[in-house]
Amino acid sequence: MSFRIDQLNGILQFQITRPHIHNAVNHEVIEGLTLFIERMKQPDVHFGVITGEGDKAFCSGGDLSVFHSLVTEAEAWEVHNRMAMLLYELAVQPVPVIALINGTAIGGGAEIASACDYRLIKKTAKAGFVQGRLAITSGWGGTTLLHEKGMRYDHLLQLTTEAEPLPADRLVDIGWATEVYDGDKWAALSKFVHKMKAHHPTVAKAYKELLTTKLREAKVKERILNEARQCAVLWEKEPHHAAVAQFLNRKK
């Protein structure tokens, strides 16, 4: 199994369990995210958490060894469309969702984290939108979501176009990460939610609904799909296929 879902004291936890491949997303992880998002709609869930197994990677994005078989725009669009809509649903969930970033979060992994409400990042971790290295753009809606959430324009443009993972402290400075933690990730999570859990869960849910009103507008979903489409268009181009081939050869 490529994921696990646990619930403890009102906190629903989704963990990608592929540390041997940097917790990269495969089809099974996509199915797991779908289940996780559905489960968060239950009344006994007060917070959601996404993390990766181990201490090296939160998520490295799509598993190229799985998705390299996608050649055409249409084939790429099928996956990007599904992931973009999943991350949109994640962003507008009725409960606050925390990305517990235990290690590197790059590409689609950074997009998953961007769809969450909070991003707690390990002191030694890095994160970034590195899709440009593969001659594509973000394809799961992460750029649009960050823009709609109010990330500063120049910081967002720099994050996406430079395609470089940034250290935790810098990610806090530019407004991407919420807080840096050191030590055990579950202890850091417990400390972070402690004050919020002191109040009735309806409070957090009510504020989440209030603050995501703009995200639920039809035009935002349309922009997210346009982002996914743009990536699919670039996906079938030769520069992308060449970059993927070079990456896979280097891994061998």
From TrEMBL:
<dbReference type="Pfam" id="PF00378">
    <property type="entry name" value="ECH_1"/>
</dbReference>
<keyword id="KW-0456">Lyase</keyword>
<comment type="function">
    <text>Decarboxylates ethylmalonyl-CoA, a potentially toxic metabolite, to form butyryl-CoA, suggesting it might be involved in metabolite proofreading. Acts preferentially on (S)-ethylmalonyl-CoA but also has some activity on the (R)-isomer. Also has methylmalonyl-CoA decarboxylase activity at lower level.</text>
</comment>
<dbReference type="InterPro" id="IPR029045">
    <property type="entry name" value="ClpP/crotonase-like_dom_sf"/>
</dbReference>
<keyword id="KW-0963">Cytoplasm</keyword>
<dbReference type="InterPro" id="IPR018376">
    <property type="entry name" value="Enoyl-CoA_hyd/isom_CS"/>
</dbReference>
<comment type="similarity">
    <text>Belongs to the enoyl-CoA hydratase/isomerase family.</text>
</comment>
<dbReference type="InterPro" id="IPR001753">
    <property type="entry name" value="Enoyl-CoA_hydra/iso"/>
</dbReference>
<protein>
    <recommendedName>
        <fullName>Ethylmalonyl-CoA decarboxylase</fullName>
        <ecNumber>4.1.1.94</ecNumber>
    </recommendedName>
</protein>
